[in-house]
Every structure is written in C-alpha cells, then in structure tokens.
Amino acid sequence: MGGLEATMIAIDNSEFMRNGDYVTSRYDAQLTATEFIFQNKVNSNPENTVGLLAYGGNGPEVLSTLTTDFGKILSGAHETKIHGESHFSNGISVAALALKHRQNKVQAQRIIVFVGSPIVESEKELEKLAKKMKKNNIAVDIINFGEESVNTSKLEKFNATINNHDNSHLVTVPPGPRLLYEVIASSPILLEEGFDMGGDSMNDGFGGGVGDIIDPNMDPDLALALRLSLEEEKLRQEREAADKAKEESSKDLEKIDENKEGNEESK
C-alpha cells in the first residue's frame, strides 16, 4: 500500500493545449493521464484524496476539492475550457492552499502539475516559489511536455530547489509513439507509490498492475480499446455539434444578407 497522501492535480488549460503534437491534443493527453493518476493514487491507499485545479484562462480555478469520487474529478475536467494563458506560480500557490484545507492532516501533501505551455516566470521567481513549497512540506511533481525546449532548464532548477529526499520529480515527455500516461505510469511519479509493474510489463502500456486500474476482471487490451473508442465517439459527437453550429451560423448570415438586400430594395 502506498503512503497516505492528499494530491492536487494542476492541469494546464491555456491556448497552447490545443496543439495536436500529442494524441489527440495536448489537452486530451493530459486528461487521460489525470484520470490514470487519480485511479492510481486512490488504488494505492483507500484513504488518499485527489483534487483538481486548472491554471490557464484568467487565473487558477479549483475544479474539484480533495475527494475519492472520480465523478467529481471527471465533471470538473469536462466543465473547464481551453482559453487564456498559463498562470503557473499562481496555480501552484492555489493548489497549496487547497492542500492546506485537507481534512486529514496526517496526509502528506503533493501537487502534480502538467506544464504544456511556456512558463513566463523568471528563474528567480520560480526559486522563491520552490523554497516556499519546500518549507510547507509540499512535494511537487512536474510533467513537462509540449514546450520542453523552453521550459526544461527552468523546471530542472525548480525541481533541484524543491526536491527534499527525492520527494519531488520532473518527468520530461517529448512527443513520440508512447502515450503521455504510459510514460507517467513508468516514471518515478507513480512508481514511488509501491506500484509494482512486474518485469517488462510496460511494453504495451498496460501490463502487470496498470491493467488492474481500469478493471481487474477485464482484458487490459480490451479495456484500453474500449476507452479509446469512447473517446473517439466523444470527439465525433463534438465534431458533429461544431459542424451543426457552423451550418446554423452560416444560415443566419444568409438571412441577414437577404434582409439587407430587401431593405436596400425597399429604399
């Protein structure tokens, strides 16, 4: 069983997350990974709680307070929209505040933050933030993807400052054949949790313990296929809705033009 923890997952919902360099976009890759981390944390200790925060838009927004109910995390994730810029430091500070209000003070505090857009803060500002987190005994795991070329050196320094007895991790994931959550699954962020992958079980992304996260009675490959087909269906419905909206707005424009012409003629 893993250690007792309260974890705030901070997701990036800035405009950069529309980028399609990760399947099917940075934002979707991040949501699948969020779901995966939640299941892993709650499975590793039934008394663990997880909350969700988005730090794009106009500023950080808590989408779900600490909970063991995946439904709350899921609805929080789907209620938020991609917009605005990244507010990394504020996001970390608000996540820390949410952890401070955890009901079970015995839980260790952890923030897992996805960074998929350029960090605007200076190294000095980040160092100050890292020291503050360390002083408050908050571990911070960073998933650095999409803008690694600009963010990696800043995040490495942040990690070096905050890291206390190897309690905080930085995982940098360039675009590639492996899905974002697969890389996280075999990284220290989740392996810390006493998460036994068993041999070379990561070959298919779902082996050993990972398959059990979805449903131990289900064939892991089938579980993955089901989830992907559900996601595809969701995307298809969203596309249809968008096409319909486009069609309707062009009809409205035609009507406006007709009315204009009618008015011109009546003059």
Automatic annotation (TrEMBL):
The keyword Chaperone does not apply. Residues 6-189 form the VWFA domain. Coiled coil: none annotated. Keywords: Proteasome. InterPro entries: PSMD4, UIM_dom, VWF_A, vWFA_dom_sf. PROSITE patterns: UIM (PS50330), VWFA (PS50234). The keyword S-adenosyl-L-methionine does not apply. Pfam families: VWA_2. One of its GO terms (cellular component) is proteasome complex. Residues 235-267 are annotated as: Disordered. SUPFAM superfamilies: vWA-like. Belongs to the proteasome subunit S5A family. PANTHER family: 26S PROTEASOME NON-ATPASE REGULATORY SUBUNIT 4. This is 26S proteasome regulatory subunit Rpn10p. It comes from [Candida] anglica. The gene is RPN10.
